[in-house]
Amino acid sequence: LESEAYAHSAICDLLRDLAASGKDDSGQLSEIADGIRLWIMIQKESQHWNGDPGFVEAAASVYDGTDEVKGARIIVLKKRYRKPFADIAAFGNGFRISAEYYRIGGADGNEQVRLNDGDSVHAGEKITAKYSFWNEENRSFVLVSVPRPACLRPQRQLSGWTGGWFRPLAAGRLQWSPSAYREVKKDRTLYWFDMFPEENSEIEETFFVVQEGVFQSAVPEIESIYVPHYRANGVFRTFSSSFSD
Q: By three-state DSSP, how is residue 13 classified?
């Protein structure tokens, strides 16, 4: 039952057999089975299942559905246009993404103070970026692109694998950091995911302030490479950086 495809097709087939046996007093088992078939179709759209033998069982379960289920279609509309950074609002289809920045300091050197848009930072300061995500479904082959202001330089400048752990939050809660290949570019960091989990997750990245001036960064983006119409973007950020007195 480690295979989502096999587990749900088995449940679907069980409900189908119970409905056919005349034991469905409520008359709802067939309807529930069709709902599972639609769920399987959505998962197949978002996930690369070709290497999973359970996909054969899932496909057979879908073809046992009603004509309405088998006739389901997804309509994709695309539009591309340009806007000034300040006019780009946060938007998502199946995803949400946001980037928040925190100044690290305090008496113990670990206090984090959230930076609002336009706040000033100083050369030499340590900054933590927190990239928060919400994903409607598990998705295969996802790319996260986070541009950074030119005043920030990553503490970890080598590309490599990152994530794959739980991070403790308040009140005994845990935040999942999914595993990804982190690629460091001159103007942004890219995160490549083989599988991006559903619901909430978070990635952290540490920077040092290295230049003075006023800087802007483009919006962070997340996109399913497998099904590109599932994507989202956040909002742009402005930083004012100077040297400390």
A: helix
